[in-house]
Design a protein that fits this description.
35% of the residues lie in helices and 15% in strands. The chain is built from eight helices and ten strands. The longest helix is centred in the last third of the chain and has 21 residues.
Amino acid sequence: MTQEIIDRPLVIGGRTFTSRLFMGTGKWSDNETMVKGWEAGGTEMVTVAIRRIDLSPDRPEKNFVDYLDPARYQLLPNSAGCFNAEEVIRTARLAQEACGTNWFKIEVIGDKKTLLPDVHGTIEACKVLKSEGFVCLCYIPQDIVAAIKLFELGADAIMPLGSPIGSGQGLPDFSGLKFIVEELGGKVPIVVDAGIGAPSDAALAMELGADACLINTAIAQAADPIGMARAMKLGVEAGRTAYLAGRIPKKAYASASTTMEGMVGK
């Protein structure tokens, strides 16, 4: 008999989220489609690469800021495009000034080709930003040691990648994620971020015990972004429900659905 799993609410930075699908602001064909996608996905948090957006009052074109209802969506600025802790810290401070939020997703890119995160830089940035009162969501590889260190620093969420950003590979290897969930599940929210390509990937992440998924490219660049947002919402919900229900353990051999005892003719 499987162990009962507690259905804990998703709370980050003191805010409770009913939706476990977080979405982004990049790569959409237009702002109207983006907003419709958010609505179809039921998201309550959207992230933005703050270094790639013009937030000046006299900006010539509208961007996500003009469409974002702060009462409905938690804005999560991120440091995409930063390659060291110093850049991240500076970007977080600028984001707080420009966007009026102390929420920040720490991304320290360690390699330009793979865009994989720099663990050391992430830890250093988290240490400083937590001391300044930021709500820190930290993007990392599926590295249990890094996850524990960030948890000990007070990170508000741990965000292990499924696979490289925008790759759509899903979770080809989720052993590290399982370690993180086993060690930190229930202690800090665990959000699978990057690489999810289909609703089945999102469902798997949630079945493994992740608390939420952050999905951008797979939705924004789908042939039908609105339909894919809806599908990802259902994938996340199905995976969460399956996790709470408790799947049967895997076995090396067959196990008959009906026992041999009491069969007719025996």
